[in-house]
Amino acid sequence: MSFETVTLEVADPTAAARFYSDLGLGTRIGLRASDAPTSGFRGFSLSVTVSQPSGVDAFVGAALDAGATALKPATKSFWGYGGVVRAPDGAVWKIATSSKKDTGPLTREIEQLVLLLGASDVAESKRFYVEHGLTVAKSFGRKYVEFATSGPVKLALYGRRALAKDVGVPEEGSGSHRLVLGGSGAFTDPDGFAWEAASLTAAS
């Protein structure tokens, strides 16, 4: 099994495509129309890593200008510098850097894009994905797992409660995840995230 695509299901694909294009993310994620009901936390977030704090500020500022909502203002922490926004389509995005100060000219270059799935039981979900053919790249007990995947987006697992706290939203949520993962198989994981054959995953 491989992880090849990530598709966000949105109410207005045209508006969402414009938003993500403005942020330089248009080629990294797919979009397709959906009116599936959902409420509250959808159980996942997308994490963008840039090289330095000015990149975080530029990315967050561009997202807010394009219609995103601030969930956590960009601030320093013991691990670096970062902020969180909610896109107009409802997806939660964290923009961060491990650097606490600028070391060069401003750049909006994205170093890494990670899809974090909030798992009710990280160990159980890790076992599920390993059994389905993914290889673990990093693992920190029942807290965090990152898989060795190719492509523009990395896949990782984080505890659902910890993930919600990290991005500044209540843990509660129900309905559709509004997220479809594309790979070499079709199945649903223990937390209800749907996978389908990558060739069937629509992209914009």
Automatic annotation (TrEMBL):
Q: What is this protein called?
A: Glyoxalase
Q: Which PANTHER family match?
A: BLR2520 PROTEIN
Q: Which InterPro entries match?
A: Glyas_Bleomycin-R_OHBP_Dase
